[in-house]
Amino acid sequence: MSNTSNPAQPAAPGLADRLLAGDPRAIARAISLIEDEAPTSTDLLRRIFPHTGRAYLIGVTGPPGAGKSTLVDRMTQELRARNRTVGIVAVDPTSPFTGGAILGDRVRMQAHAGDSGVFIRSMATRGHLGGLARATYEVALVLDASGKDVVLIETVGVGQDEVDIVRTADVSVVTLVPGAGDEVQALKAGIMEIADLFVVNKADREGADRTVASIESLLALEAYAPEAWRPPILKTQATSGTGVPELLDAIDRFRSRPSDDGLVRRRARSEFRLRELVADRFLDHVAREVLGDGEFEALLERIAGRSVDPYSAANDIVERALGRRKQA
Ligand SMILES: Nc1nc2c(ncn2[C@@H]2O[C@H](COP(=O)(O)OP(=O)(O)O)[C@@H](O)[C@H]2O)c(=O)[nH]1
Ligand SMILES: [Mg+2]
Questions:
Q1: Whose Cα sits closest to atom 17 in ligand 1?
Q2: What is the pTM of this model?
């Protein structure tokens, strides 16, 4: 079902060590193993996990064309100027298909080529059986283990995948552009709950202040405790870099906010991943050892036809997996 189901296959000798030493080729190899859901990737992740947790994960999300890639590039420049190393994961469904995004990414990669303090990787959005959010998180772990101080995760939109990806990060930056008033309304539900900071990019364009105002009016509806973090709204112009230092300063303030919210978030993330892994492995076990060929599919049919309810079906499967009941 996924790469995590077979922990036995050892990773290539030396790969983890080279990765931990920051070798770019080892980083690239490790990411490929994760993307391919290679059985050895689990062993690799297990080896590197004790060396992770040091990087700060910054999620940058927003609609296509908002300027996220440009912004991430500028943030990277600024972070390098501040002597921090940077890993970038761009999860952009347009990247593999549209020349524009690929070209943009190539230009970006060239801009940082030769700087061993930066590692950039675009992720395909298709074909992740274990889920895109998990693959993204695992790639972030690799970059973390390789010694990057900051990992920037660029992702498009506000679907469930993206919300899960953003939950992976320590801080989420939601990027909007002038004239996005309607968008702000539409994004309300998904985005409001995950945004730690808002960026109104393309501030050189008309209407930036109106967009700021519409985000503010949404924030005004939320009840913030006096000591709670209230998402600031920053105006940037990614093409020139205007506002980017202020954005990074705001992220630093968020990071050092006087609450244990950061720890709570990391715990929640661990819980999410652990539950997911346990569920996956259990389902794998069920598929291999408990259910007969085609039984799962047949069960789905019967549930759809209302001859079985899913609660009884699930109970039955669990009982059988635990060996408490013989197959009917
Ligand atoms: N006018 C203006 N254009 C920008 C700004 N930031 C990005 N762009 C342009 O917006 C387009 C989309 O940018 P991109 O970073 O690829 O957006 P993404 O799809 O969100 O990653 C590009 O043509 C950028 O040059 C900005 O601050 N002002
Ligand atoms: Mg982009």
A1: 67
A2: 0.86
CA of 230 to the centre of ligand 1 (A): 27
- 102 CB under 6 A from ligand 1? no
CA distance linking residue 3 with residue 13, whole number of Å:
18
Task: For the chain, give the mean pLDDT.
Answer: 85
Q: Would the CB of 104 count as within 6 Å of ligand 1?
A: yes
Helix (H, G, I), strand (E, B) or coil at 284: helix
pLDDT per residue as tens digits for the range 138-174 = 999 999 999 999 999 998 865 666 677 777 899 999 9
Domains of the chain in sequence order = 1-51 (no CATH), 52-259 (3.40.50.300), 272-321 (no CATH)
| Tens-digit pLDDT profile for residues 102-139 | 555 555 666 677 788 999 988 877 666 667 788 899 99
237 within ligand 1 shell (Cβ under 6 A): yes
Write down the H helix ranges in the chain: 15-20, 24-35, 40-48, 68-81, 99-111, 132-145, 160-168, 181-192, 208-219, 244-255, 261-285, 295-304, 310-321
The answer to whether 82 and 255 are in contact (CB under 8 A) is: no
Distance, CA of 40 to CA of 78 (rounded, Å):
36
Alpha carbons 39 and 236: distance in angstroms, whole number: 43
